[in-house]
Design a protein that fits this description.
disordered C terminus; 2 domains; alpha+beta; globular; 19% strand; three-stranded antiparallel β-sheet; 268 residues
């Protein structure tokens, strides 16, 4: 069954145009319609029409010389995002630095966005060879990688099962269920080479004061520096960081205590 909504492809392409324009560092490096077209794989005429339509909404700025940059109206979106998620990001920012320093590997914050998660912040490892997320803001399936599994395992049972029914590859459901059961029991998720070969990730979910699963924190790096024998220690640091963020969300005006190095039990 084709469930695509009318205009869905046009909306997706318009968003791709906006993301393409974010790559310009200044007005001097603004992109031409031809450069945008090449970057996203559209013909120039179609790309020009998208740019003109977006310019009419204020989301894109037409510099008047054939080049385009992000429009001032995108600032209101950034401000709205900050109002909605700023408290979580502020708390997570402090936790990520401490987590990175404790584990020695890149630490990141992943927001739940409906049936996916997006990487919105990372604190990179000081090691010369380290994990760097390059898909900030891009949706990732809740079945792919430790942060996804941590979020999925923390959802209410009925919601979790419905997601698995709808998205699991045929023949993999039993494996997915076993992984989720293990994640729930231990309070954290582990993935080894799930999205990037040779990379290990350990993640724990973050809930808001109402008990809703809103995000996950993880520590991730080369498998040789995160062998199985380190899993318990790294997981202790990750779950403690997630618990600390939850405490800050529940008491935003409270003190900013050091993150305790203790594990947290998942009650889902």
């Amino acid at each position: 069954m084709n469930t695509r909504l009318p205009g869905q492809q046009s909306v997706r392409r318009a968003i791709e145009v906006l993301f393409c324009l974010e790559n310009a560092d200044s007005p001097a490096s603004a992109l031409s319609a031809a450069e945008v077209a090449t970057a996203i794989g559209l013909n120039r005429t179609t790309t020009w029409r998208y740019l003109q339509t977006l310019a009419g909404t204020g989301m894109v700025h037409d510099l008047g010389d054939g080049r385009f940059g992000l429009g001032a109206r995108t600032v209101s979106l950034a401000e709205a995002y900050t109002r909605q998620w700023g408290e979580l990001e502020a708390a997570a920012g402090a936790a990520l630095v401490r987590l990175r320093d404790a584990v020695g590997e890149t630490a990141a914050l992943h927001l739940r966005q409906g049936g996916s998660r997006v990487v919105v912040r990372q604190v990179e490892s000081h090691h010369e060879l380290h994990r760097t997320y390059r898909e900030l803001g891009r949706p990732i399936s809740l079945l792919s990688g430790a942060p996804s599994l941590a979020i999925l395992a923390a959802l209410p049972k009925r919601e979790r099962e419905a997601y698995v029914d709808a998205h699991a590859v045929p023949g993999t459901r039993d494996d997915v269920e076993r992984t989720l059961t293990e994640t729930i029991a231990q309070g954290y998720a582990v993935s080894r080479g799930a999205r990037v070969p040779g990379v290990t990730s350990v993640a724990a979910a973050v809930r808001d004061p109402a008990g809703q699963t809103v995000a996950a924190l993880n520590a991730t790096g080369p498998a040789e520096r995160l062998p199985r024998e380190r899993t318990t220690d790294v997981a202790a640091q990750v779950t403690a960081a997630a618990a600390w963020v939850e405490k800050q969300l529940a008491t935003p005006q409270g003190d900013n205590p050091q993150i305790p190095r203790t594990t947290r039990q998942d009650t889902t």
